[in-house]
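Hello again,

I reread your note about wanting to compare the complex against the isolated chains. To keep things tidy I'm splitting this into two emails, and this first one only covers the full assembly. Below are the input lines as submitted, including protein chains and any nucleic acid or small-molecule components. They are followed by the predicted structure of everything together. The single-chain runs will come separately.
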Amino acid sequence: MTAAPIVLLSHPMLSPMRPALEAQGWAVAERWAMTPEASAAARAIVHAGEVPLPTDFLENLPKLGLIACVSVGYDGVDVPAARARGIEVTHARGLNAEDVADHALGLVLASWRNIVLGDEVVRQGRWRDDDRMGPRPGLRGRRLGVVGLGAIGEAVARRAEAFGLEVAWWGPRAKPDAAWPRAESLLALAQASDILVVACRADASNRGLIDAGVIEAVGPRGLIVNVARGSVVDEEALIAALKDGRLGRAALDVFAQEPTPADRWADVPNTVLTPHTAGGTVDSIPRMVAQAIENVRLFLAGEPVASPAP
Amino acid sequence: MTAAPIVLLSHPMLSPMRPALEAQGWAVAERWAMTPEASAAARAIVHAGEVPLPTDFLENLPKLGLIACVSVGYDGVDVPAARARGIEVTHARGLNAEDVADHALGLVLASWRNIVLGDEVVRQGRWRDDDRMGPRPGLRGRRLGVVGLGAIGEAVARRAEAFGLEVAWWGPRAKPDAAWPRAESLLALAQASDILVVACRADASNRGLIDAGVIEAVGPRGLIVNVARGSVVDEEALIAALKDGRLGRAALDVFAQEPTPADRWADVPNTVLTPHTAGGTVDSIPRMVAQAIENVRLFLAGEPVASPAP
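Full-complex prediction:
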């Protein structure tokens, strides 16, 4: 009988997966409590793709062949560098698109229609004397731009249409079958949008894609929603634009650093902030966990993995 | 030249309408600062329909012939009693249905997906240690019941379908052309709904329609959203059910008393509260104001009004 293959968990927030991994007959080790024996023998690591996984950490894992991200996205992993070392990277491609799109529309509405602010105003007894609570524009006929028309972007666009929003999108690759018009450029999309929803993949190629120019193009009456990854938005530029009114509003589920420090947002007006909860529901999490486990199983069996990072 | 007809404003929050009324050549008087001359001569009152307008107040207005509600709804007015005195009642029927439906979905998402709570958690620096922030169910495949399939209810149902929710409805009258199934009863709808959205008209016939039995039928995992009027929900029963867990969540834009006292909600868990902002946007308010002015103009000209209360 051979020893059980060693599978690493990369972060304490993944600890609830331990029983499911052990049920596969694998030995589970923890990255945050590694023994030399585990480092020497680990075959795969189960990872939360948004958490940075340094390349020098991988150098101490000579038998590692797979980074299986439970998440949709793998922005904490240097995929080319991993593959150069013979390590495959997988993620939960598309498995939570509907949930992320729901949350994105929730952020649109919570910000645009002053729902978070209104809740604060009612609870503070300022129902009729808060000068931030003047009437808001409606949604019908206003323009929503989607950055990245993948599974999430399409699910956002379908929902936005039900609200009478005019939808356009931009992404680096043309999509002849897309149901909505593609803008000439990201900047053109931002200029033509009242609401810009960032829903693209995140990797080394698009860090800071939503830069000061794009932010100012959305403008003083506009709203930027980010359900992609914090790295896609220049967060310093976003904060500066909100503070001096060059951008109207922002609603963010993802941040440059997670958890984002509370004091970073204390004096930034017109924001709605959620703790990276868009994609993780009781429906999607079991699907994402099962996908990661299946990828580890396929890899250990010497078969092609099911959902490699692009 | 005859004297300008006297038109009353019923509430200080309607004061911004004064210039538009005066531009019609009417003399504007204020209900909260009435002179005997204005009482004796007033022909019409411009009213916010949700504010109680006592019958004994109308008894002091011998020339009054019209109550023109700027609002959609007229629940503060005893319509049969007014008509028995020869006073017509109008409102802004249907003019803000899209905005109210947007807000209703915003309340659904803000509550169901913990957006208001998440914002609080991020700002308080409790990103990873708030035990209320466990994963939530997604929306797809869950059941949303609409109480009242009027213009607002239909607009809610259309949006809900885009989120993959299964829609049903109940109202006192069958609608053979409705696109969604009508439940056998309100109680049956509540029992079959994860989310119940109250979107019906409010009048003397349906005070407390959403009673303890309906609330408990929605149940410990369910959500009740009210964008109709506070009078339609038994608010004491709702609060009691939230406190002891017989109802999961509530998201309310309307209240038994408005403004609702802040301390009424201080120890009521799992609520999202907005200050009756669903229907008033920069798009809808001018339409509603214009409709009220048009109704006053028609009445003073001896013509049939455009949008009488049913």
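For quick reference: Chain A has a mean pLDDT of 96.

B.
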